[in-house]
Specification:
Radius of gyration: 22 Å
Strand order of the largest sheet: 3-2-1-4-13-14-15
CATH topology of the largest domain: TIM Barrel
Distance between the termini: 62 Å
Shape: globular
Helix content: 40-55%
Number of helices: 16
Mean pLDDT: 95
Number of strands: 15
Oligomer: single chain
CATH superfamily of the largest domain: Metal-dependent hydrolases
Largest sheet: 7 strands, mixed
Bound molecules: zinc ion
Number of domains: 2
CATH class of the largest domain: Alpha Beta
């Protein structure tokens, strides 16, 4: 038995506890209460106290692309032109990065998450093995979603589906049960209607989790409704047989059967009232990525309204190419502030609700709320400690406010997954961070010159 205690314990599923403690039995939480209660009842347990800190559930980042971490900052000059950004990203990933580059990139991303208190990722991988190996190497919890290739042509839907399943079946998540395998059809405009239907049927039949980028940009909306814009040109260029459905993104996902699989919908920035009713009514979930949306100028997703409708919403950083940091405290802060800008007169997102989005909300979005996302007996001991010892974090009047409005990733001093401390005070003994740093520099030099050539 082990006891972790701190000035504040935030179970998230219940009110904060001053001078609180968590009792851990092996991999799981056995009890949560005041330090006095827990230590008195368990005098034999090993006890560690985090003075001037809060213990919180580990963050759940429910929408990431760990394999792209080494491209951080590379395409910032294309942020204003999302289709061009996506095309350049796809070219560089396919033509410049080696398998080892992508693997190291994913490990670097997972490590960044661990050091910022993330204990669980919903990660999307075009080369799924990289994200999977990264989660295993860093020992994090998560769902690895194998992404589809560019596959918008109905004529090849069956072959595309078979190729996808072959990749999925090659992914070995190991014996621990810490990682589940899901599928990510990339978006409504890069996956054919028939392939979307095949994936949805498969997901429902096998209980496989799915996630899809949806209603992210105005360009996507124009393409779906009228068949015009950048991607229409790409489809023509490659002779793709793709017809615009003439409807909005979420409605289209309803029509193709995807919503029946209760998918995790990433973004939902551009949705109307009827679509949000469809999301709520179908039991679909939303990965809210406010910083990524803002960086591309895609707008502010209707967080308050989704929550009002009872939709399960988690937070995602999206990739490091579009954020450019994995900092769930910053993401939660941004989510709360952006919602207040968008809807100041409806639900006013409070710090406690923002913290919930970054933890239990993410777990719900991934369907993992039974095992992680809050500090409750029976759940895995996935815990982060956030320090308020810096004078710049003082004083702490309200612990939720101190976390969401005054803290950031660097304030995380300990991260634990299933009762195992994986990160403490800057150090992470099971990962060779120096090697990763060298690899990131080496990859950066190569992708930088490749990008210059592509632009020339
Ligand atoms: Zn994404």
């Amino acid at each position: 038995m082990m006891i972790l205690s701190a000035d504040h314990v935030l179970p998230v599923a219940s009110d904060p506890i001053s001078d609180g403690a968590v009792l851990i039995d092996g991999e799981t939480i056995a009890a949560v209460g005041t330090r006095a209660e827990i230590t008195h009842a368990n005098p034999e347990a090993v006890h560690e106290h985090f003075a001037g800190a809060a213990l919180i559930p580990g963050f759940v980042n429910c929408h990431s692309h760990l394999e792209l971490t080494a491209l951080r900052g590379l395409l910032d000059d294309l942020d204003h032109d999302f289709p061009a950004w996506l095309l350049r990203l796809t070219e560089i990933r396919a033509e410049v990065l080696s398998d080892q580059d992508i693997l190291d990139s994913a490990v670097a991303g997972a490590l960044e998450g661990l050091k910022s208190g993330v204990t669980c990722f919903g990660d999307i991988g075009r080369w799924g093995r990289a994200g999977l190996e990264a989660l295993k190497t860093v020992r994090l919890r998560g769902v690895l979603f194998q992404e589809t290739e560019f596959s918008p042509d109905n004529r090849t839907a069956r072959d595309d589906f078979d190729a996808l399943l072959e990749k999925v079946s090659a992914l070995d998540c190991g014996p621990a049960g810490r990682i589940a395998i899901g599928i990510s059809p990339h978006s409504p405009y890069t996956v054919s209607a028939d392939l979307l239907g095949l994936i949805a049927d498969h997901a429902i039949a096998t209980g496989t989790k799915i996630t899809i980028h949806a209603a992210e940009s105005d360009a996507e909306q124009v393409l779906l409704e009228s068949g015009e814009g950048f991607f229409a040109g790409v489809f023509r260029k490659y002779g793709v047989d793709w017809k615009p459905p003439g409807t909005r993104a979420v409605r289209y996902l309803e029509d193709t059967g995807v919503l029946r699989a209760k998918p995790l919908l990433a973004h939902c920035t551009n949705t109307d009232e009827e679509e949000r009713e469809l999301i709520a009514g179908s039991g679909s979930r939303v990965a809210h990525c406010p910083k990524s949306n803002a960086k591309f100028g895609h707008g502010i997703a209707p967080l308050s309204d989704l929550l009002e409708k009872g939709v399960k919403v988690g937070l995602g950083t999206d990739s490091m190419v579009s954020n450019n940091v994995c900092d769930l405290l910053e993401e939660a802060r941004f989510a709360a502030l952006a919602a207040r800008i968008r809807d100041p007169e409806s639900r006013f997102i409070q710090p406690a609700e923002a913290l919930r989005l970054a933890t239990l909300g993410g777990a719900e979005a991934l369907g993992l709320e039974g095992v992680t996302g809050s500090l409750e007996p029976g759940k895995y001991a996935d815990i982060a400690a956030v320090s308020f010892r810096e004078v710049s974090r003082m004083p702490v009047h309200d612990v939720n406010s101190a976390l969401i409005f005054a803290s950031r990733a660097n304030d995380v001093v300990m991260t634990m997954v299933a009762g195992e401390v994986l990160y403490r005070e800057g150090s992470c003994s099971h990962i060779d961070e120096g090697r990763l740093a060298s690899r990131m520099k080496e990859i950066a030099a190569r992708v930088g010159s490749a990008k210059t050539e592509l632009q020339g």
